[in-house]
Amino acid sequence: MFEAREFVENALEEIMKTVGESRVISACSGGVDSTVATFLVHKAVGEHLIAVFIDDGLRREGEPEFVMRTLKSLGIRARLVDAKEEFFDVFRGKTDAEDKRKAFRDRFYKTFGKVSKEEKIEFVTQGTIKADVLETVQGIKSQHNVLEQIGINPEVYGYKILEPLRELFKPDVRKVARELGLPKEISERMPFPGPALSLRVLGEVTPEKVSIVRKATKIVEEETRELGTFQNLAVLHNDKATGIKNGKRVYGNIVTIRIVESEDAVTAKAAQIPYEILMGIAKRITGEIPSVVRCLYDVTDKPPATIEFE
Amino acid sequence: MFEAREFVENALEEIMKTVGESRVISACSGGVDSTVATFLVHKAVGEHLIAVFIDDGLRREGEPEFVMRTLKSLGIRARLVDAKEEFFDVFRGKTDAEDKRKAFRDRFYKTFGKVSKEEKIEFVTQGTIKADVLETVQGIKSQHNVLEQIGINPEVYGYKILEPLRELFKPDVRKVARELGLPKEISERMPFPGPALSLRVLGEVTPEKVSIVRKATKIVEEETRELGTFQNLAVLHNDKATGIKNGKRVYGNIVTIRIVESEDAVTAKAAQIPYEILMGIAKRITGEIPSVVRCLYDVTDKPPATIEFE
């Protein structure tokens, strides 16, 4: 049985001992993992921590404002970095899922590395959890080693990594969040991937396509809030399909709705949500987003599918 | 109230009067519309009719054999034309839905025109029904005028068109089929589009992609036979998505399952079929077709979607 209080006490002590009087940086996306890691370090070292929210232009509606507001209300020193243009630049012409992930990661670490240097830090905190580690071993996802990817040789610069959650599974991270008294919007927050909406735009990622999937995401989240499912999302296809709008045949966009039940994201079940809700979402998406003519529902478990499409 | 017997009597008389001692050709796809039209003309003019099945390589599993067997068992003079290679040739490099439809149509009428000349015919029969005519008027589909598209000037060659079903909606065509004593596999046959599986392969149509969607189609049809729905189909996306097969992350194919309720195909409802059946289909498709990692279910009505994807 996992004891959140005991975990927190040990973690704080460990972080204090490790960090001492050094400076720490944390890239906080607003997800439960990175926010819990950030808050733990903040509790341990206070003003020695700087939290950074990198606005890559791929976040959900209202997300940058929400994260900055939350960090500030928790008393955490925080900085917003507007990097929208440089992220969209690296996606230009890239259509393969792996190429896009790599482009995102490279750009993320370049931006994060630049900010880390500006802030003259010695430690980097990240919200790595057990599932990330396991999936690396199994070859499902490529786990990032922060230092190497920032392009910093730890021998020379002495940067060190803090991963206070690497032994926890998601449900335990949520227990820690509750134990720490974090707001419910954080402790119960649905998982959201690092590369954000870039994974939910198939084919090339452009501001226009992100804007479509952002609207669809908002509708899916609004309509499924009460379901208690693990993750609820929308994906914009690169493929198009025929439809009829205002009595005319058009060639329009396709959006997939994905709702899964899971404990820890390692496996997942496609949720059997009532058709009434599903078709209500489809009606809103095709009604409120002019270019979308068709909504699909993903009925595949993980495995053989993954939760996200890329 | 539509009277099938009366309709048949009038139609036979009309066809006999019109055709006289001339020769007639009919392109029979095995669908209820073209088979009823073919059989009506056969009853009216017997050996003056030649039915042609064009094997374009885009048909469902076992379809060419089924159609030829059916025509022969009905006593209809029939000829199979193997045109698989020439159809795949015209799809090369074409990814736009309209371009693909046009390529199919051009190729179809070239092949059909060549056979018509060989057979020295004066009349062309087709199974045009009321919904086709209505949708042309509304601009949803482009209706084909056979003669122009064969590239034959009727003034010069004197070819004429027979469309015995153009005043009927689909349910009445089925009544006529029953009245004519056609086998149930024909009278209750699910609608299937002229351009066949080419509409169900998004992006470029290749033999490999058709082979995947053919397998998925067979599974969907087998698992939904008892539902009594109007049309049950599978679509292969051009987009790919991540999945996990044999414990490894792969980038695989996406198949959409589409099942609709409709009277006449002019409007349609996405069917609310039990999740158990839906997920059983998804398991079979991802299990039996190695490249497929993900199955989606189309939850959009017509309008705003169409029944087919292209």
The separation of the N and C termini of chain A measures: 34 Å
Helix- and strand-based class of chain A? Answer: alpha/beta
Stretches with pLDDT under 50, minimum 5 residues of chain A = 143-150
Task: Using the CA coordinates, give the radius of gyration of chain A.
Answer: 20 Å
- Overall geometry of chain A comes to globular
Summarize the topology:
The structure is a homodimer of 310-residue chains.
Chain A: H1 4-19, E1 24-27, H2 32-45, E2 49-55, H3 63-73, E3 78-82, H4 84-91, H5 97-118, E4 123-125, H6 130-137, H7 146-150, H8 154-157, E5 160-162, H9 170-179, H10 184-187, H11 207-224, E6 231-245, E7 248-261, E8 269-270, H12 275-288, E9 292-298
Parallel strand pairs in A: 1-2, 1-4, 2-3, 4-5, 7-9
Antiparallel strand pairs in A: 6-7, 7-8
